[in-house]
Design the sequence.
């Protein structure tokens, strides 16, 4: 990389308010089945080979996301139908069922308890 370049994405941090944090932590840990790298009463962190997804409390965030489509998290899966079925059984409502994209992959869309949009993404083989 050239001097002064941005090398890679380190992670994504989702802020929520203190009263909503327990539901958010449960959703990412228990419903999605992500394994925490670290967990505190106001911050939880998940790691995939150095890419971090964190949920934490911020004193300037209030309520659910007002513009949920502004940022979308894409979570790569090997079998979108199996993950979709597991999450549906866990009570996750999908706004878009698994569907093939023009580029050859599959996508399914849902929201976390704060209304932030996430997508399951199965990349083409």
Sequence:
């Amino acid at each position: 990389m050239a001097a002064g370049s941005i090398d890679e994405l380190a992670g994504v941090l989702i802020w929520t308010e203190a009263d909503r944090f327990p539901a958010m932590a449960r959703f990412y840990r228990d419903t999605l089945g992500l394994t925490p790298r670290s967990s505190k009463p106001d911050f939880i962190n998940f790691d995939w080979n150095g890419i971090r997804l964190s949920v934490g409390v911020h004193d300037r965030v209030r309520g659910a996301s007002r513009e949920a489509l502004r940022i979308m998290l894409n979570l790569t899966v090997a079998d979108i139908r199996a993950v979709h079925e597991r999450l549906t059984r866990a009570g996750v409502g999908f706004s878009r069922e698994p569907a093939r994209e023009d580029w050859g992959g599959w996508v399914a869309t849902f929201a976390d308890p704060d209304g932030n949009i996430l997508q399951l993404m199965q990349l083409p083989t």
About this structure: The radius of gyration is 15 Å.
